[in-house]
Amino acid sequence: MQPIDVGTQRFTVNRSAASSPAPAPALNVGSTVTLADVATLAGRRVTAERLDAEFFADPNRILPMVADWTQDQLYMLANMFMGEGDRRGTAELLELLRWLCEPGGPDDATPHAVKVEFVTQTYDNGVFWHDEEIFLHCTDGTVEPYEWPEDHHQDDEWRAKDERYTALLADYSRANPPSDGDHLIVDLITGKFEHTSKWSQD
């Protein structure tokens, strides 16, 4: 086992496994690493244990570990995490929209939604995608407002889904801020999110 220096602290890397056809060597992490170290170790196929979110949620523990980082390095890492969070949020929002618009069953012959269209709503703190006034583009070519099931807030599953949908759409508005009058079309089949300045049927 050969130690390597990372900043002012030390890691231990299992070098012996790197020269054999066995899985990539493990990196026993005792602290954070610099971005250059991450790139170097990744190039050598050195893998790390999965990181514990609670560990990084403590500023008193994390900030001293990055005290020597530059502003650009801090922003680079923050942007990477924000981008990944936005990607996952968009994927989850898509799945929730598919759940909300799911047909009644495999034998349900009534037209069902293939796209969802959002309009904007202006608040004191900016313009956001409207979470209630949404429109469904159906298989028969018609466009109709989405109707929430009556008393859906009385159902625990529906209430939880609704709350999560509202939060995710607000996050999407933050990550992809619309202008007043914009439209957002979500293709439920392809998963594509498209911003436009006009109704998609125009």
Strand order of the largest sheet: 7-6-5-8-9
Q: What is the SS-derived class?
A: alpha+beta
For the termini, the CA-CA separation is 67 Å
In total, the number of domains comes to 2
Gyration radius from CA atoms, angstroms: 24 Å
How would you sum up the global shape?
Answer: elongated
In CATH, the architecture of the largest domain is: 2-Layer Sandwich
**Strand residue content:** 25-35%
Please count the helical segments: 5
Could you give a short account of the major beta sheet? 5 strands, antiparallel
Please tell me about this protein's structure.
By secondary structure, the protein is α+β, with helices and mostly antiparallel strands. It has 2 domains: 2-69, no CATH class; 93-196, 2-Layer Sandwich (Murine Class I Major Histocompatibility Complex, H2-DB, Chain A, domain 1). It has 5 helices and 9 strands. It has helices spanning 35-43, 53-56, 59-62, 71-100, 156-175; strands at 2-6, 9-13, 26-28, 47-48, 113-123, 126-138, 143-145, 183-187, 193-196. The strands form 2 sheets. It has a 5-stranded antiparallel sheet, covered by helices on one side. It has a 4-stranded mixed sheet with strand order 1-2-3-4, with helices on one face. The longest helix is centred in the middle third of the chain and has 30 residues, at 71-100. The radius of gyration is 24 Å and the shape is elongated.
